[in-house]
Amino acid sequence: MLRGFKEFILRGNVVELAVAVVIGSAFNAVVTSVVDNLIKPLIQLVPSVGPQGGLVLRHNPGGADVVLGYGNVINALITFVLIAAVVYFAFVLPMNKLAEMRAKGREPEPEKVSEEVALLREIRDSLARRQD
């Protein structure tokens, strides 16, 4: 019973799915930040957003300011890269090494060829050369 569970966990599908969920949630923060801090302000040039350490654009003299929060986007990108690095080095890389070690132990040995088969192959190759 425990052996089956161990094989299920180490098979890779569960780890790959967990990595996909973590990376997906981290990437969600990047997409949300890009939309909230870059795209929405460009679409909504009329209403004003308080300065939050971003680039302030003036639509017209005396009009409302629009803030492009590029600092928030950079923060989300850095967070995403750090989460992806931790997931890769803490989970993906060790699982790949483990799978590689397991595969080395299961490689089939090269098939031994009998003398008759070797002789027949030589004859076949010789005949093929004569026809060319």
Core attributes:
two-stranded antiparallel ribbon; about 70% helix; about 130 residues; elongated; mainly alpha; 4 helices
Structure description:
The chain has 132 residues and is mainly α. It has one domain. The chain has four helices and two strands, in the order ααββαα. It has helices at residues 2-10, 13-43, 70-106, 115-131; strands spanning 55-58, 65-68. It has a two-stranded antiparallel ribbon with strand order 1-2. α2 runs antiparallel to α3. The longest helix has 37 residues, at 70-106. It starts with a helix and ends with a helix.
Q: Name the shape in a single word.
A: elongated
The helix-strand sequence is: HHEEHH
Mean pLDDT: 76
Structural class given helices, strands, pairing? Answer: mainly alpha
Q: How many beta-strand segments?
A: 2
Outline the fold blueprint.
Elements: H1 2-10, H2 13-43, E1 55-58, E2 65-68, H3 70-106, H4 115-131
Antiparallel strand pairs: 1-2
Concise account of the structure shown:
This protein has 132 residues and is mainly alpha-helical.
